[in-house]
What we know:
Largest sheet: 5 strands, mixed
Number of domains: 2
Number of strands: 9
CATH superfamily of the largest domain: Dihydropteroate synthase-like
Order of helices and strands: HEHHEHEHEHEHEHEEEHH
Bound molecules: iron/sulfur cluster
Amino acid sequence: xxxxxxxxxxxxxxxxxxxxxxxxxxxxxxxxxxxxxxxxxxxxxxxxxxxxxxxxxxxxxxxxxxxxxxxxxxxxxxxxxxxxxxxxxxxxxxxxxxxxxxxxxxxxxxxxxxxxxxxxxxxxxxxxxxxxxxxxxxxxxxxxxxxxxxxxxxxxxxxxxxxxxxxxxxxxxxxxxxxxxxxxxxxxxxxxxxxxxxxxxxxxxxxxxxxxxxxxxxxxxxxxxxxxxxxxxxxxxxxxxxxxxxxxx
Length: 249
Ligand code: SF4
């Protein structure tokens, strides 16, 4: 009644580690039990005419978090209920382990269209959580904060230092929100495999590069030393360039 009066949302958060005895004794300590827990509370709220809800299924186990979230969404779907879903992998840890867990759990859900808000939980300073959250949203395509890069793993056909090339292109262009650049190892498969990139920076021979606008070849066999500036010129010609300072302003 108080939340209704003040138009305040309620988050129904089910945590794998703290399910009620009643639910656990009936369904075990399972993803299904988690889904039922949240579903029951949502139904109670709905029956009282309160639908200002956000639901979340939290677990430090990625598979359990994913399974329970999917089950909950199926239960709600069957009832024609559609509430925002909050995603998070709790106690994900730190460093690479925490980042991978978060990316799989949160990103996996976003990739199939589930999830409205997210929280990355790392045993690190909070600013780091925000950076990873932004990267997950960018990778899933739900928010675009920076340029996107497509690059191949390189192979025997690669005749230039693609790692250095990618680092150089990223250093110059990563702030260009919405621009997609392919950095590829060879002209045999590179142009075809850089998907829908707006620009291509593709190795064409010993320290030589071809530059593409979409799939159209614009500059052929240019020295690598000149390539990055020529790529920037192409981006400027298209009106897609911004200086970093302009973005900060
Ligand atoms: S794009 Fe070319 S260099 Fe890159 S992995 Fe494929 S074949 Fe090898």
